[in-house]
Design brief:
heterotetramer, A: 318 residues, alpha/beta, Glutaconate Coenzyme A-transferase, nine-stranded mixed sheet, three-stranded antiparallel sheet, 12 helices, B: 258 residues, eight-stranded mixed sheet, two-stranded antiparallel sheet
Chain lengths: 318, 258, 318, 258
């Protein structure tokens, strides 16, 4: 299945095509490589540089039903258009990983793409509930939603462990809280030097990590700035990664506080202007706070939600 | 004790909270009520308050109330922006923050907080947003101030879920759990102020806001509330405080109800 | 002893003076605070902002005989002038922590300031040996030197643990190497999720961490850029911290790739132009490679070394 | 097999190493011999070689040979600079690097490396600089190439100290120690090239550099060296390769002897 999908990718360069075939064989033979290292398998001799491909092709080839997909962006640079493309391609049985599920997860959950959510704060920031998330958890609509719930610090450290090629990370947390008993990816660990009891959190290594960034150059080097959240760690933790960008440019001139992800750390780049709306992209457009407030009414019942999705996402516009 | 002007209990709550913040304190701010109070303090007596939002903005100086912790205005006015890993691992966990400023859906008599679920975890009646940064703010800041409106629902006898530890089941629990900060030193509501008994760690109602009857406070608490022997009345808002909060709310992105 | 030193500090502002007295009492009463958190104790209600004080005063007040002191800067921004001031003040019995000991440690060791070195690569980069370091290890001159030796990755993770307020960090390393047996700050740890055996490294929390940076503003906010190494973690791991800077400016205008350390995370700032020479400060002056090569001859024997130190450091010029 | 020009054994070593690097490979570079070889490859057949130095410079394109891993030229020409924690935890440890390029003072028959001490650890005859980034480069890069000059001292029967693991005491040891990369695939010396036997992991001498006698190789090895049944002779330097290395050395900051 995955094999076919990878072959069907129409890259423009023959080299890249060959690399992708190789990728498949390493998936078959070197499972430890994919699991332990969390690096995309697209590599032969000479590193793979991220190709710039259409968003529909990227989601089609890099994400499979049943995959674990991280969609990161901490209030800023949320990869909304990638979420919409996942919905349009009717991907199912996904495990979605995201610190702050936000509207993107509300939409994916409400459209039946998600069977499990790994998260740490599931609200509409500054507004209130995520109604589709609540409907799934409280009433199992449109299908039951399994949850693996953390604090921000806990899920952050799961990404750090994943990015570091380690099976777990250590933190001081969870003890005394209700999450300590209900979340299986948290276990006690004792400091071998001091005897202090701390908590270990399991690494998360998504099959695909998606982020949105301001820009990429034509070689696929990525640049983002402003609030950068957990995006670098999400990309590095992913077995594959996709970066949607506002703009493709000839040169990435430096920006204060920027994060640069070299092309060889990214699987693919897709151009997607305003791809973060109603979230924002610093330097391009502002957060659409009115839409976040409006979403409360749109999403509050199933019919208005489905009608909005049909008109605004499934119709093709996003 | 009567203020020169009329004011709402929500205004009194925000003003009482703002008064607790000192200039140059490093303050970790939750969105909503805490953000309103901290930004009010910054416009009044604490212009150099160092505000940190969990989105990674250090020293944010927003010109208006942000709707979310990641608003562009926070990023643009910050002294610097750090990643989320740095916020939690390098700044919160080591206990570098002076004051953590938290809201919650529910609080119990030992100042534990619930923002996860009403009902049971596996069969929720109301699924709330969850933990976010709250457990670490409550655990690691040098001291914690909690803000929430007081009602039988928000002050239940027993929490359905402990999202963030205040004092657990009493003295010694924070130490047992390895929590390094002092924990909640004050709970500010729309009716008054509660503070933990230094020995038992149980919350004691110590300040009644102006124009509030103590009966209303007792009715609004799900447990048998301890009232301080020397119950004080909160200083009413000054004209300056009221003007500041009203201009803040009028200019803000925050829906007025929140 | 420490109490007296702190009192003798002549800060210009009375507020800061009071803060320092408070500091002493918290040292006495809250040992866990100093050990577990690794934050400088100089705080009352309202956070301490780093005062800008003379380098001699900073070393005099912040560093005591017998202290553990980190001097960080990875080839770039090495705090040489602070090292010279430590030598001039005849500090003794120091434990020096530094990934790449470099010339600064060679000088401190040769001048008898150091009883223990925590390090991961002790050479003269691109040139060869650190002769004073070798003389101390091989022949105990001018005094025996205890060593706590790591890989870069190991010592890096010790700083990360220290900066994170954790007693240890986890990594994949040391197994199969000789260091695994001889370094007591490395112990086995098992992943509670996968059973993999990894290594735990103990947090390092220096009494004082010293770094050199390009600039600070008048409030004590610090800015550095270029190769930033482990400096942020070193400062955050330190119970106290000192930043020497090339320049004090009114405004820290943003620089690409810069690290900004807010004043409230720093204990004190000292102006020290060319404070990194023969290392360098990007944007200010270049690495003096000729000096690194010349140091080989200067340091090769004890007499030429002592003569050079006497003429160039003890004499006051540095 | 005679080259058109005269060349030194050191030149042959650097050129043989440079040939092993392909364009677009991500290569983690130690200072000294590896840095010289990598920069030579970049001037010849691999202009887009992605060079990483442990100082945090990614994609450095130095105009001349750097003296240290942190030279300003590396920082100024890099695609981006990351912190030392990121280099070791985010890039090396997860096995993202194609080729690790290492030097060492000593190597044994299983390609373990010593750069720590001659003599015993507690009573050293010569104290060497130590590990630096080498154990992680040797452990985690997808493959490792080692460069060092061959002599009885540098190729001892037994190492006084294992700084970086090659193949430990033979097959299975890398897996036992949790090392994820393939380990050393090639050792390039001033006399020739050694490669591990796929089964036993013992180094086998597979290529003799031009103008070198095999007796010299055997004399320069402290253990009973296995010679490949089909011993090949290294392709001599081309005119272009020699010109490139000589202009590189002439313009470099590196003392000529290194």
């Amino acid at each position: 299945m995955m094999f076919l999908k990878i072959i069907l990718l129409r890259f423009t360069q023959r080299d890249t095509y060959i690399v992708c075939l190789t990728a498949h064989f390493s998936i078959m033979s070197d499972r430890w490589f994919l699991q332990g290292f969390g690096v995309r398998p697209l590599r032969q001799r000479g590193s793979h540089l991220a190709p710039i491909i259409p968003l529909s092709e990227a989601i089609g080839s890099l994400l499979n039903d049943g995959d674990t997909v991280a969609l990161e962006g901490f209030t800023h640079l949320i990869p909304m258009s990638a979420g919409h493309e996942i919905i349009r391609q009717h991907k199912t049985d996904l495990t979605v990983v995201r610190l702050t599920p936000d509207l993107i997860s509300d939409q994916l959950i409400g459209m039946g793409c998600v069977s499990k959510l790994v998260f740490s704060w599931g609200g509409n920031p500054g507004v209130g509930s995520l109604h589709r998330f609540r409907d799934a958890v409280e009433h199992g609509w449109p299908q039951p939603l399994e949850i693996d719930e953390h604090s921000h610090a806990g899920l952050t450290n799961r990404f750090i462990a994943g990015a570091s090629g380690l099976p777990f990370a250590v933190m001081r947390g969870y003890r005394g809280t209700g999450l300590d008993g209900v979340t299986p990816t948290v276990l006690p660990i004792t400091c071998p030097f001091t005897g202090e009891e701390l908590r270990a959190v399991a690494a998360v290594n998504p099959d695909l990590s998606v982020i949105h960034a301001q820009r990429a150059d034509r070689k696929g080097n990525v640049q983002l700035w402003g609030i950068v959240g957990i995006q670098k760690e999400a990309v590095l933790a992913g077995r594959r990664s996709l970066v949607t960008v506002e703009e493709i440019v000839d040169e990435l001139d430096p920006r204060p506080g920027h994060v640069v992800l070299p092309s060889w750390l990214v699987t693919a780049v897709a151009l997607s202007p305003r791809g973060s709306h109603p979230s924002y992209a610093a330097g391009y457009y502002q957060r659409d706070n009115d839409f976040y407030i409006a979403w409360d009414a749109i999403s509050r019942n199933r019919e208005t939600f489905l009608a909005w999705m049909s008109a605004n996402v499934l119709g093709g516009a996003s | 004790m009567e203020s020169a002007e009329m004011f709402t209990s929500d205004e009194m709550m925000s003003i009482a909270a703002a008064r607790q913040l000192s200039n140059n304190e490093v303050c970790f701010i939750g969105i909503g009520l805490p953000s309103k109070a901290a930004n009010l303090a910054r416009r009044l007596h604490a212009p150099d308050l160092i505000m940190i939002y969990e989105s990674g903005t250090l020293g944010a100086k927003p010109s208006r109330l942000p709707l979310s912790i990641g608003d562009g205005d926070l990023a643009e006015t910050a002294d610097t922006i750090v990643s989320v890993p740095e916020i939690f691992n390098y700044l919160l966990q080591p206990g570098r923050i002076d004051v953590g400023f938290l809201g919650a859906a529910q609080i119990d008599r030992f100042a534990n907080l619930n923002s996860t679920v009403i009902g049971t975890y596996r069969n929720p009646v109301v699924r709330l947003p969850g933990a976010g940064g709250a457990p670490e703010i409550a655990g690691a800041c040098k001291k914690v101030i909690v803000m929430l409106r007081q009602s039988p629902k928000s002050f239940p006898k027993e929490l359905p879920f402990i999202t963030s530890v205040g004092f657990g089941s009493g003295p010694g629990d924070r130490e047992k759990f390895g929590l390094k900060g002092a924990g909640p030193v004050m709970v500010i509501t729309d009716l008054g102020i509660l503070e933990p008994d230094p020995k038992t760690k149980e919350l004691v109602f110590t300040h009644l806001h102006p124009n509030i009857e103590i009966e209303k406070v007792i009715e609004s608490t799900g447990w048998n509330l301890r009232i301080a022997d020397q119950l004080e009345v909160t200083e009413p808002p000054t004209k300056e405080e009221l003007e500041a909060i009203r201009s803040l709310v009028a200019a803000g992105e925050l829906p007025l109800a929140r």
